[in-house]
Design a protein that fits this description.
Blueprint lengths: L2 H44 L2 H13 L1 H17 L8 H14 L9
Helix pairs in contact: 1-3, 2-3, 2-4
């Protein structure tokens, strides 16, 4: 095998690895999209339109918090712990409860 053939083989191997990595990322993205679509479908059932809008607003400001809230709402609904559909007022109460549970950390300068 000549130097040129070795380079071609090495280049082909690099291209194959990149293609596999790209396919894995694409598969992961498709799974995430599918899970998100399922979550949104469940949320459409368990939340009123106004409550969904409030949740969307929360997601804009605090995406991680909203993600956890969505999972909690879905789990609670599946366990039968909440009356469905959850209204905007009920969602506000849940948000207030969750906010009051968080501890505030204050930094004081001496």
């Amino acid at each position: 095998m000549g130097a040129e053939e070795e380079e071609d083989a090495e280049l082909a191997e690099i291209q194959r690895r990149r293609l596999l990595a790209l396919q894995r990322r694409l598969t992961e993205q498709q799974k995430k999209l599918q899970i998100d679509a399922q979550k949104q479908a469940v949320l459409r059932v368990i939340l009123t339109p106004q409550a969904r809008q409030r949740l969307t607003n929360v997601k804009l400001v605090k995406p991680e918090f909203a993600e956890q809230l969505e999972l909690q709402l879905i789990q609670s609904a599946q366990a039968g712990k909440v009356k469905q559909p959850i209204t905007d007022e009920q969602l506000k109460e849940i948000l207030i409860r969750l906010q009051s549970q968080k501890r505030e950390i204050k930094i004081r300068r001496l």
